[in-house]
Amino acid sequence: MNKLRYAEKVAIITGGSSGIGKGCARQLVEAGARVVLCSNREAEGVEVAKSLKAVALSQQAGDALFVYCDVRNPHDIHNLIEGTVSMYGQIDCLINNAGWHPPHKPIDRFSTEEFRDLIDLNLISVFNFCKAALPYLRLTQGNIINIASLVGTMGQQQATTYAATKGAIIAFTKSLAIDEAPRVRVNSVSPGNIYTPLWQEAIDAAADSEQCRADGEAAQVMGRMGSIEEVGRLCVYIASEATFTTGVDHIISGGAEIGYGRKGR
């Protein structure tokens, strides 16, 4: 297989300065893509882009550029999309990855305002980015990948608001795929337990950090969490090779959702 299987393509990744977004950015640059990564963490994003630019130079293909963007701000989104086209002349792939998982708590302790804020970050940003990028994606017959979550279909204890936003992303993806076919493919990716800085924060905050990490690993039949690079490789495959695939939610979970598990209390 040609390693540079996405050469000369242009990809935008939201939340690209850490976690899954960072893994996607790395894999796309290694595939030869010109990647525009954005987040609201400027120093972190600049460093990631710098390291990826070095990868691109070493393989003489691809590129990486960081642009500050608060995905809750439509003005920032507009500037990012137009700036990408001005810089590279096209957009071939949009990966909507930016989002947040609030601390676990029962519905009684979530406020309506907290839920609205999470919808704005996790869901409305996806809508706004798709709407802004689609005029350019239609020209290239490009594709959109929306990062959802395994819990969007199977649920999660004390995570009603988060699971709701991710389930909505899956439904939005399928509907948009119908509207945009056959010009633009639209798919979602639903990770299970992927070891990210957010996961490490949860481990650090746990009363027993070692047990928390062990529980995270044991939730999968493969006996471990996934890596951000594994999610990135799936996204490269969807963007570059899964050319007859649209409206599909691609689960990458290490088998967390299969088999029986203890549910009683």
Describe the structure.
- The structure is a single chain.
- With 265 residues, this protein is an alpha/beta fold.
- The chain has one domain (10-195, 228-252): 3-Layer(aba) Sandwich (Rossmann fold), CATH 3.40.50.720.
- Helix content is 49%, strand content 14%.
- The chain is built from nine helices and seven strands.
- It has helices spanning 19-30, 42-59, 74-88, 112-140, 151-154, 160-180, 197-205, 209-218, 228-240; strands at 10-14, 34-39, 63-68, 93-96, 143-147, 185-191, 249-252.
- The chain has a seven-stranded parallel beta sheet with strand order 3-2-1-4-5-6-7, sandwiched between helices.
- Strand 4 (93-96), helix 4 (112-140) and strand 5 form a beta-alpha-beta unit.
- Helix 1 runs parallel beside helix 2, helix 1 (19-30) crosses helix 9 (228-240) and helix 4 runs parallel beside helix 6 (160-180).
- The N and C termini lie far apart (49 Å).
Q: Which helices and strands occur, and which strands form pairs?
A:
Layout: E1 10-14, H1 19-30, E2 34-39, H2 42-59, E3 63-68, H3 74-88, E4 93-96, H4 112-140, E5 143-147, H5 151-154, H6 160-180, E6 185-191, H7 197-205, H8 209-218, H9 228-240, E7 249-252
Parallel strand pairs: 1-2, 1-4, 2-3, 4-5, 5-6, 6-7
